[in-house]
Automatic annotation (TrEMBL):
SUPFAM superfamilies: Immunoglobulin. The keyword Iron does not apply. GO terms for biological process: cell adhesion; leukocyte migration. Interacts with the ninth PDZ domain of MPDZ. Interacts with the first PDZ domain of PARD3. The association between PARD3 and PARD6B probably disrupts this interaction. Interacts with ITGAL (via I-domain). Interacts with CD151. The gene is F11R. Coiled coil: none annotated. Belongs to the immunoglobulin superfamily. This is Junctional adhesion molecule A. One of its GO terms (cellular component) is bicellular tight junction.
């Protein structure tokens, strides 16, 4: 008889041996890919690998007419940017007792096109100003870099002395550049660059933006015009009233009323005024 520890070790070895024997009897069911992510330029053929083991009679569904199925994967005759995505290789036996799958990410590489920008020609100091940059062709999607007067704008304006007086937020993914608030030092020529790691980076046209003060002169002029129009209105009302356009009576008629009462009887020698007139 061995010690308790030796008995436990023997039991453990028997358990492990049983697992190994079961694995050999049933077979190891696996599906895998040698390239879980594939990058290929547009209009080129590509193969997405899908290898399997442990299946006695595997079967897979076809993808499209332009895709050829092979026991080791699928082959595209020519890929387009619309083919970018994640593909799943599913393998199962006819009886459905065993099943496995693996995912392969396909990225069709397309260089960026020339980006377009939306930049105001002028913006008021102290207000919020939004500049945008975008392009639609790049795959994977492009990231954007902004330039002011030919100088790269850092993500954090306070990190460099050249932009320490600016207050902006720059989003490299969306291409949006927001000044909040705009300062006088933000006047300049702005452009952006799109790049996605494939092909040549593309740069937009440069557009100048002027940071201007609030136009007090225009406000004063507007107030003066309003006062002049009000004065003309008052004069027009006075003139119409002076010409009698607001008199409700008609010409040729009198507005006076006369009341006459007959004298009453009186005794001789007594004189009293009994008639009255109201004018």
């Amino acid at each position: 008889m061995g010690t308790k520890a030796q008995v436990e070790r023997k039991l453990l070895c028997l358990f492990i041996l049983a697992i190994l024997l079961c694995s050999l009897a049933l077979g190891s069911v696996t599906v895998h890919s040698s390239e879980p992510e594939v990058r290929i330029p547009e209009n080129n053929p590509v193969k997405l690998s899908c290898a399997y083991s442990g299946f006695s009679s595997p079967r897979t569904p076809s993808y499209e007419d332009r895709v050829t199925f092979l026991p080791t994967g699928i082959t595209f005759k020519s890929v387009t940017r619309e083919d970018t995505g994640t593909y799943t290789c599913m393998v199962s036996e006819e009886g459905g007792n065993s099943y496995g799958e693996v995912k392969v990410k396909l990225i069709v590489l397309v260089p960026p096109s020339k980006p377009t920008v939306n930049i105001p020609s002028s913006a008021t100091i102290g207000n919020r100003a939004v500049l945008t940059c975008s392009e639609q062709d790049g795959s994977p999607p492009s990231e954007y870099t902004w330039f002011k007067d030919g100088i790269v704008m850092p993500t954090n304006p306070k990190s460099t002395r050249a932009f320490s007086n600016s207050s902006y937020v720059l989003n490299p993914t969306t291409g949006e550049l927001v000044f909040d608030p705009l300062s006088a030092s933000d006047t300049g020529e702005y452009s952006c660059e799109a790049r996605n790691g494939y092909g040549t980076p593309m740069t937009s046209n440069a557009v100048r933006m002027e940071a201007v003060e609030r136009n007090v002169g225009v406000i004063v002029a507007a107030v003066l015009v309003t006062l002049i129009l009000l004065a003309i209105l008052v004069f027009g009302i006075w003139f119409a009233y002076s010409r009698g356009h607001f008199d409700r009576t008609k010409k040729g008629t009198s507005s006076k009323k006369v009341i006459y009462s007959q004298p009453s009887a009186r005794s001789e020698g007594e004189f009293k005024q009994t008639s009255s007139f109201l004018v």
